[in-house]
Amino acid sequence: MTEPKWLSWAREMQAIAQTGLTYSRDVYDSERYEQLRRLSIEIMSSYTGAGEKEIEMSFAAGEGYATPKVDVRGVVFRNGKLLLVRERSDGCWCLPGGWAETGLSPRENAVKEIREESGFETRAVRLLAVLDKLKHSHPPGANHIYKLFLLCEITGGEASGGVETSEAAFFAEHELPPLSLSRNTAEQLALMFEYMRNPNKPALID
After folding, report:
1. Residue range 83-103, pLDDT digits in tens
2. Dihedral angle at the C-alpha atoms of 72, 157, 203, 193, nearest 10 degrees?
3. What is the CATH number of domain 69-205?
């Protein structure tokens, strides 16, 4: 899915402005970077219909050098089927996971998300892929995101929903439910099944 040019322009403008505001020591340069940041917010607001305050909080509130956000997904198989959770926000299904939390390693993030969203206790055993969301067929989004996929093994627990999920279940490759495409695509899940069939397949990095 090709994202619109205005979105990539607004995202790049925001990143330049954020980094410039972090390192600029000249008051006039800082004013120009702040103006650039405001323009990126206005572009997002004009094309999305969202309020500028909402966009500022979710899109342009970062500080420091601008970097991609990190999304960690746990990949769990049982009897040839893949664990998915149903998101309350859209009613569709995805691998358990979410934003990487400060203070937790990628392994710890994956295990935590699986526990909170599916009810299963796991241990992370292997990194399968690091994918750039912009290079895959996700719906366009405001943030530049790196997606980490970690293979995990069940050590306990049982299927249940969570605060952000309503249920958890295992699916065979040919019977996947409607997917939450902002979180994972059919092609990405097909890749995870390739790793199930070929445990020696090297990790994929965009």
Report:
1. 999 999 999 999 999 999 989
2. -110
3. 3.90.79.10
